[in-house]
């Protein structure tokens, strides 16, 4: 098995059923082994509100008490994950929905409490890429929800970007891995107000310059940090592009390609 | 692979966290390949109520409109399933949580509307026992939520007893299968008011007699019909017992054993 495509889609695609269907249709057509990691979207916050569970975000991260953990387990691990699996099956992709707990694919540990108590949030310790490889060899397409587990029976809410890069890095022991982050823009923008100003290639030096200039904003920084780290740790290629351009990105190139 | 144990646990175990932990501890210790199917429990009804989704039951079956389907997908496929998987992982069982959509293990079709429109309820068409066998050979323990899918992208709410018997029957092409239904009594009772009146062996003739006498009640009839059908279709043994006696049932015998 040579090339593996690992794709992460975020909440903006999950929340828009037409966009999700377009993405899944393109994803279904991608050649070769592939793997999907999805984020949560606004549904978790909406359902939490209806259930009387308050949402608290710190620096874009969700504080996860037991009640919120139950909500994200339901929404990410149940509703979103299984709807994607059923839709992919209808597109002739033999998808299998997983959290990190399933087949012990992604083990994490509860984030230690320092300044902030994030609650049931997991930092990834170990990916069982051998197990994931085994699914791929069986022509299954893993679809991961951003939930992992610890060794003592807890599920843990986990950042989907981090989960995507951790899986991509570990899979790079077996494969040449292309990691694609799909988001709502056509790529990383040189001018945040100009959607056509996509940076075609981004190196660590350029990234540092854009950060210093304040061009690359808050939300993009953890995503890009993750992405550069993945490159350093063995992933062959990282692309950041719009969900609608995923086929183009794989086949011809689109969005921003990160280089070392 | 010779003997496979297929166990179904119902809502009464799911709803009682101490009972669930006792059951999972016993399940973890069972020798040989095994497979779990769980029901839903009252949590789905409670969460539906909080979300403003009305629960309508006809003859003990849940009418499943789109909103209720979303609730059961969240609760059965997400919350309950993943909590069981995480707990089993902590007990050193390499569990993998599945709906029928995952790896296309259990395909169904939306129940046709006759007198009653059950909504998104699935009647099982096909079990991919080869795929399930493949998980078992990898020393994975499948944990099924009672949700299946059709070929056009819909998830379908499915009776857990029926799902257990359909899986057990199909697995009997590969294995000698023992199917165990765990419930809140110690077995099928000759006197519903006397918990010690467990019928040790039940044949179709005896079953017909108990039904005619009204001893075997409404809720038990579909369960026993399923169970006898499973026996006729190749399952080696069917046991109906209390969740606390599952180890005893496997090792020495407990509860009611169905015979042809």
What does this structure look like?
Chain A is of the alpha/beta class and 260 residues long. Chain A has a single domain (3-258), classed as 3-Layer(aba) Sandwich (Carbamate kinase), CATH 3.40.1160. Chain A is built from 9 helices and 14 strands. Chain A has helices at 11-14, 17-29, 42-50, 66-90, 129-137, 160-171, 204-213, 220-232, 246-251, and strands spanning 3-9, 34-38, 57-58, 61-62, 95-98, 106-110, 122-127, 141-144, 147-149, 155-157, 176-183, 201-202, 237-242, 256-258. An 8-stranded mixed sheet of chain A has the order 5-8-2-1-11-13-14-12, sandwiched between helices. In chain A, β9 and β10 form a beta hairpin. The mean pLDDT of chain A is 93. At the A-B interface, α4 and β5 of A face α4 and β5 of B.
